[in-house]
Amino acid sequence: MRIADWEIPSAGIAFRRGLAFIPRQSPHGDRDHAMNEREHDMARTVIIEKAGGADELKLVDWPVGEPGPGEIRIRHMACGLNFIDVYQRTGLYPLAYPHALGMEAAGIVEAVGEGVTHLKAGDRAAYAATPPGAYAEARVMPASQVCPLPDGISFEDAASIMLQGMTVEYLFHRVWPLEAGQTVLFHAAAGGVGLLACQWARSEGIRLIGTAGTDEKCRLAMENGASACINYRDSDFVAEVKALTDGKGVDVVMDGVGKDTFAPSLDCLKPLGMMMSFGNASGPVDPVSLLTLAAKGSLKLTRTTLFTFLADHARCQDMARHLFDKVESGAIKVNIGQRFPLDQVAEAHRALEGRQTTGSTILTL
């Protein structure tokens, strides 16, 4: 991918070194990123100008300004790739265009704005945060969801686990009081979130039954801590779950797949069980009748999003510390399955959408 020429007809555009400086528009959203007279570094940044396929991803040079109150400027060393990026690119989760993509990264803090006290210039840091904009060499962003990174965790490892690891943390600890000895059904158990969930469950004495699309992926899930894993292409996973639980069903289903797995997953739950829907990898879930939940055993249903939990600064920092403790203790081992250079971001998106990945995927800088 070459660095694109990005032109937007608008009054007030200035051109320097062949690049457009747009006073009140930024790929990071509707905020003023006009460059001041100091004109800090240019940063290669991946943007989209409209919703669509992977071909809509464009790599542009973009100016990075100084942080304002409550903000930091961070120089990225690696950034993560997640399905939420695909949802934003396709328009399932709409953005105001043009907009940068990417929700997680790790790097070094270059400057902090007024009021930022938990970070300082020179600190190692990592985040899963809004607004999107992590597919970049550097950016200015709100500081509240950026977390100090322990020296014992590499930038690549941190970039690969912030969004996925904090997702697992909240699924296991913030939504429903899971306890040792309970049983969870986790779909896509060999993906990035899934492999972390397998390890997390094992570390806390929770029985995790996974699903995956190949025998090889099932083996990978079990190597990472799943008690059992069902190849959903070869088997009826509802029948298999019932057999594995002596007909009782599971306490909780954690479903990031969505449309293809949601309805049968309800039949895997025991009475009073909890259905946690947290993703739409196969498409959005159709509307659900409350009477269906009643008829299947007074089931509970929640559609959660990570960023609701991260919106509170103290809770976000606590979740990150919990995740980092798991990694540093060895309970969680990071599995980076794929690395793509930033200029191959379109290929990375195609691999993720085609379910050709295992573990986490990162973009290297």
TrEMBL record:
Q: Does the keyword Cytoplasm apply?
A: no
Task: Note the Pfam families from the entry.
Answer: ADH_N, ADH_zinc_N
Q: Which GO terms describe its cellular component?
A: cytosol
Keywords attached to this Swiss-Prot or TrEMBL record, sorted alphabetically, are: NADP, Oxidoreductase
EC primary class: oxidoreductase
Recorded hits in SMART domains, A to Z, give: PKS_ER
GO MF terms listed in the record are:
mRNA 3'-UTR AU-rich region binding; NADPH binding; quinone reductase (NADPH) activity; zinc ion binding
E.C. number: 1.6.5.5
**Residues of the Enoyl reductase (ER) domain:** 52-363
Protein's UniProt keywords contain Acetylation: no
Protein name as catalogued: Quinone oxidoreductase 1
Say which species the protein is native to. Roseovarius mucosus
What gene is this protein translated from?
qorA
